[in-house]
Amino acid sequence: MKKAYIASVAVVAVAVVGCGGSGNSVSKTPKSSVIGVWMTTSVPAAGNQYTQSDRLARPAVNEVFATVANGRHAANDADTPSDDSSQLQNDIDSFLTFPANRSPQIRTVIESVLIPDVMKADLSQSGNGAYLGVETGGATGGKFGGRQLSDDVVDTSLGIIFGNTIPALGLAPDDNNEIPTLTSDHVDASGKHFLATFPYLGNPL
Fold this sequence. Notes:
Layout: E1 6-13, E2 34-44, E3 50-56, H1 61-70, H2 73-77, H3 88-97, H4 104-114, E4 119-122, H5 153-162, H6 165-168
Antiparallel strand pairs: 1-2, 2-3, 2-4
Helix pairs in contact: 1-3, 3-4
């Protein structure tokens, strides 16, 4: 017997991210144009209830930090972003301390950028999307945030963790503890088939 899986998207304003949960919801504070987006997957439980089994916002955040540092990937999958400041933040700090060996200043910046784990977008801004654009004040290519299909989010994340991205953006002094061999997965958007209109992803070539 096949089980039915429900994928849902939760959207909340960053200012009230603690009020969000899984399922479809939208909430914005009157004076804020910044929203945070994440996706959850739920599986059937008892009766007509469903249990959240997976959560994803920024690619690689939970996969890298929680899995390697403390084996807490499954635990964070069941959480909401309102829990990140106490749980996922500890996982990130633990990983950045060892094995990444980053300085306290760089750790503080990375934690402030990645917590809570939601994909942020500033709807008051024009222009193209830019991964981590809201969190870095436009330093990654634009202030709208979100991401473009061609954004290499994994390389961006690896550059933040193991590279000189944070010092290069002027967000913290260089700790000279970069590990260049770990700053890329060597997979980019070259040769990918994108479309100019919806659904944007082209048919397989």
